[in-house]
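Weekly modeling sync, notes
Attendees: S.R. (lead), two postdocs, one rotation student

Agenda item 3: backlog of single-chain predictions. S.R. asked that every request posted to the team notebook include the full sequence so nobody has to chase files. The rotation student volunteered to paste the first one in as an example of the format we agreed on. Action items at the bottom.

Example entry:
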Amino acid sequence: MSCLSRIASVAALGLAILMPYEVFAAAPTSIKSVVDRAMAEFYKTNPQAVAVSVGVYTSGKTYIYNYGATTPGGHRKPTADSIYPIASITKTMTGTLLAQAVLEGKVRLDDDVRKYLVGDYPNLEFEGHPIRLKDLLDHRSGLPFFMPDRPETMPDFEGNVVPWPTRIDNIYKTYTLQDFYNDLHKVKLTAVPGTEFKYSNTGAALMGYILENLYGDSYENLLKKRIFEPLHMSSSTITLTPDQQRRLIPGFDEKGNRMPPHTDAEPAAGAVKSSVYDMLKYARWHMAEDSDVTKLSHKPVLDYGLYTVGLNWQEIRNDDSRIIWQEGNIVGFNSFCIIDMKLKTSLVILANEEDPASAHGQALLANEILKGLNPKSAQMP
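Predicted structure, as returned to the notebook:
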């Protein structure tokens, strides 16, 4: 495809073209001091934390700060191009691809998912109410946490000392896409889809498979062609190149144990790896909200007043601010992508140590940075 043809196709999708490089601004003392102060408090209360990369985009300028070391007790700092798994932030990208499919007239958000499945699935409805496409990305589909739906696929499974990533990797060495659909036939819904929260990686995974069938292309290629390449996110991928593999930093638990590499099973649910630099580009595109694609991906499919959920974007408002965000959490890593839509500020936090305390600490860290940058910013709950 020629350069002009590629630009035309991107424009048709409503994607913003960003320059392939950026000039990093000299950080105003006030911004650096806000982040430094918040990070000092974070490390004080979470000494088990290892590396943390923080990116801020505000007033048209980009600021990136890196803290700690890539290994416990080490001396190598992370960089703007260090690569981290972003886990469930991937689901916002799946939602973005779904929004594109809707705008291209391929699907509707209220469509019964069975319209896009081969075979008979009478089990994917409850009391006459089917699972809809939009239910797959708000954790109210009723589908299980992971496929196959077995106790050992849960991260907190206590019947085995084998780490969760290794358990999943071992299962998926022989688990096929046909096995996934066979297990989908066995699902038993217990509530009307769209009415009860039940965290589900399976929902996002199924959406990824539906997108692959719609476009006749792999989920990873769809991400590259429709998000990563147009936004010049050269460090964002599922399958790592040798250079990206060298920049991928390891993950650790609270005891400093190195976690095994993560499987790319159910890719649309959480297999993307990226850098703080790239994720700021992604956040800036969504922050601009100047395309029908991003607007639709943010549009609430569930509304609880001040708190709403879009296509896997969470949103909360106050009188002066509106933030959308998503968190990614997987063994060894935690991440946040937060956008203050009114105040035009984006915040990305990527970390390579994960435990309940540090994950909560990073949420507090994010709120502290947002508040320090602008006291009017809304806060994540």
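Discussion: group reviewed the output briefly. The radius of gyration is 20 Å.
Action items: rotation student to repeat for the remaining queue; S.R. to check formatting next week.
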